[in-house]
Automatic annotation (TrEMBL):
Identification of the protein by name: Deubiquitinase
Stretch of the intact protein here: 700 to 949 of 956
Taxon lineage: Bacteria, Pseudomonadati, Pseudomonadota, Alphaproteobacteria, Hyphomicrobiales
Domain EAL: 1-250
Amino acid sequence: RELERDLREAVADEAFELHYQPIYDLSVERVCGFEALLRWKHPKRGTVSPAEFIPLAEELGLIIPLGEWVLRAACRQASAWPDELKVAVNVSAVQFTSARLITAVREALQTAGLPGRRLELEITESVLVANPGSTTAILHSLKSLGVRVSMDDFGTGYSSLSYLRSFPFDKIKIDQSFVRDLNASEGSGYIVRAVIGLGASLGMTTTAEGVETPDQLQRLRAEGCDEVQGYLISRPVPAGDLPALLRRLN
Ligand code: G
Ligand code: G
Ligand code: MN
Ligand code: NA
């Protein structure tokens, strides 16, 4: 397939770019970090979404070099930001269980001179479902590097509650589907409230994703959510736009 050949070439040429979406801390009303979101600048198709090419990269075994490129690029770019800003990187299932993960994270931090506490790794529930046995050891190895770990897209997978109890997550990212319905459906409001309460009880930070309207933001504030992320604050932007974005938001 054509896309397959192009992706192999793109990984070899590192023809990717990271965009960054701010994560906003409601307790201090400031940006506390950015989530790195991968973009492929395809010569003919334009920008291709990771939702399309990550599954293909996993299938072709390209996710390891690609994921390591993301880690290196994110750590290098974050090392130029003010010290209070963290960078969050998404880790796919295949990358999470690869034998190289811990080494790759350690090397990316070292090469960039970035302290581990400034890196957050986002892992989805589906990753845990696929590898419950090895997960605890991997998470502890990451945490021994000072890195924080977040459960991404919380509420969309399976066995969420037992996973929260069993695994040492620092943060819960409430899936955008619950935030979208926050003011339209009573049920979503109850779920968001329950997850924020659960996070607080377990000593985990809660971040609401996909915040698009002032009403949603107001509700999340009222419920005591720690952090928000979404188009209302900002869409993901190229690294060069971050200084102006920080001036506008902080
Ligand atoms: O940025 P966007 O909304 O297009 O992202 C689509 C999906 O791709 C999301 O699920 C997001 O988590 C995932 N994604 C974005 N960047 C990366 C990345 O660097 N690595 C992995 N594994 N997934 C990513
Ligand atoms: O799976 P993950 O949560 O990592 O994916 C983040 C995805 O959500 C990215 O593709 C990002 O572009 C997208 N996103 C971020 N903020 C919003 C938002 O406010 N609304 C919508 N619809 N998507 C968003
Ligand atoms: Mn994410
Ligand atoms: Na998410």
